[in-house]
Amino acid sequence: MGGFHRPAEDGSPLIAEDPFQFTSFELLAVTQDIRNQEKANEEDEAEHAHSLLDPHENRQHHQMEYSGGEEYFDVIVVGAGIMGSSTAYHLAKRGKKTLLLEQFDFLHYLGSSHGESRTIRATYPEDYYHPIIAESALLWEQVQQKIGYKVYFKSQHLDMGPSDNKSLQSMIASCLKNSIPHRVLDSRQVSDEFSGRIEIPENWVGVVSEMGGVIKPTKAVSMFQTLAIKNGAVLRDRTEVKNIVKKVGGGVKVVTTNGENFWGKKCVITAGAWVGKLVKTVSGLELPIQPLETNVGYWRIKEGNDNGSVGVDYGFDGDFPTFASYGEPYVYGTPSLEYPGLIKIATHGGYPCDPDKRPWGPGMPVGALKEWIEKRFVGRVDSNGPVATQLCMYSMTPDEDFVIDFLGGEFGKDVVVAGGFSGHGFKMGPAVGRILTDLVLGGEAGVELKHFKISRFKENPQGNVKEFENQVTLKPKLRSRF
Ligand SMILES: Cc1cc2nc3c(=O)[nH]c(=O)nc-3n(C[C@H](O)[C@H](O)[C@H](O)COP(=O)(O)OP(=O)(O)OC[C@H]3O[C@@H](n4cnc5c(N)ncnc54)[C@H](O)[C@@H]3O)c2cc1C
C-alpha cells in the first residue's frame, strides 16, 4: 500500500535572482496569452485559496473522502513523472479534484524524469515546438518562484555541427523565422567566444543562443508534486493502474493492481515508457512508442584549467554553455554543476527494451564520444571514459515528436494520452501539463497540436515527414518496427 505524499506546507518565499531576459521571445503572441492566462490563474488560485482559508480543513476533506474505497475525482492522472506531476499541479490549481497515481515510489529512478540535469534550449529544427518552449520557459520561472527554491539554472546554449548538416540548417532557419535571438559563428569565433575551451573544425559552425540552461529534474518533479498537494490534489504512490474502463453514462473507472478502484470524470495518461503497454490494455490501440534504455556520463575535467577549484571554467560560474553537437553521434552536455570537477557529456540514443525487464546496461558505447571529447575540449577533459554514469529511459516515436491527443474510440475526449517524449520533453513539462489540463477539461489546447496526433501514424507509419535526419541513434531493427 502506498502512502499519501504530503510535504510540509510552509510559505513560499520568493527567490531573489535576475529575471530571465526573453528578449524577442517576448514578441511571441503566446507570451501575452500566457500572461493573461497566468493572471486568470492567479485569480482562480486566489479564489481557490480563499475558499480554503484553512488548508488543513481542505486536506482533511480530501483525506476523509479518500478512504481506500472507490472514490470520485474530476480528473485522475496516471504516472507521476514530470508530465503527470505538472498536469496534477495545473488541474489542482484550477480547483479540480485531482488524483495523481504512481506505480513506484514518488521520485523513483526507474523512468525518465529523475536525476540531476536536463537541458533547456530554444533552438529546435521544428517550428512547432517554439510556442511550447516559450510558454515553459516562463512557467519554469513562475513556478519556482512559488515553491521558493531554484530548479532552473540559466546559461547560454551552443549548438554546433557541420555547416551542411540539414538539422542544423533547419534549426537556424527556424530561429530566424521565430525571432529566436542567436548568433552563427565560424570556428575561430567559437574559439574566441569560449576562450578556447571548446573548438570546432573549420567546416563547422556554432550557433550561440541566449536561452539555455539546466533544469534539475528530480527537484522539479518534487516541486510540482508539492504545489499540487498545496492546491488540494491527492497523490498516491505504489499504486499501479491495471486498466481504465469507460463507464456507462460518462466518466472512467481506474482499476489498480492492489484491488482499489477510483472513479474520474476524466483521465490523463502520462505513463512514460509504459504508455504503450497501458494504452494497449485500455483501448487495444498500439502506439508506436519504443522504450529505450540509455545513460548519461560524467567526465573528469583535468586540473589546471581554471583559477581555483577544478571545473570552474566549465561550470556556470565560468559562463560555460549547455551544448549540442549535430551529426553522428549527436552529443549533448551541460556545464559542470551537479558533481564538482565533472562535466556531463552524453550521446543521444539508446537500446530498445521492455521497461519491466530492464537490461540495466551496458550503457551507450563511448568510442566515438571519446574522440569527440578529446577534439572538442582540446585535451582539457579526460576522454579515457566517464567516471560516473546514470541510467534512464527514453520513449521514442519514429519521428521523435510527442504524442499528445485524446484516446478516442469509446473514451472520446474523456481520456487524454501524453507520451513519446523521445528524449527531449523535460524542458516542456510545465507547458505540457497546462496543455493536458486544457485538453482534458475543455477539449482545446491553446496551441497547435497537429504534429502530436496519434492519427499521423495511420497516414504514415514514420509519422511527421521532415527534411532532415533523425537526431537519436537507433538500431535498424528498431526503426523497422514502426
Ligand atoms: C538520459 C536522459 C536525458 C534527457 N535529457 C533531456 C534534456 O536534456 N532535455 C529535455 O528536455 N529532456 C530530456 N530528456 C527527456 C525527458 O527526461 C523526458 O522526456 C521526460 O522526463 C518524460 O517524462 P514523463 O513524465 O513522460 O515520463 P516518466 O518520467 O517516466 O513518468 C512516467 C511515470 O508513469 C509511471 N507509470 C507508468 N505506468 C504506470 C501505471 N500503469 N500506473 C501508475 N503509474 C505508472 C511511471 O512509473 C513513471 O513514474 C532526457 C531523458 C533521459 C532519459
TrEMBL record:
GO terms for molecular function: flavin adenine dinucleotide binding; sarcosine oxidase activity. Keywords: FAD, Flavoprotein, Oxidoreductase. InterPro entries: FAD-dep_OxRdtase (IPR006076), FAD/NAD-bd_sf (IPR036188), MTOX (IPR045170). Residues 74-439 form the FAD dependent oxidoreductase domain. Its cofactor is FAD. Residues 37-62 are annotated as: Disordered. It comes from the Eukaryota. Pfam families: DAO (PF01266). Residues 47-62 have a biased composition (Basic and acidic residues). Belongs to the MSOX/MTOX family. This is FAD dependent oxidoreductase domain-containing protein. It comes from Dipteronia dyeriana.
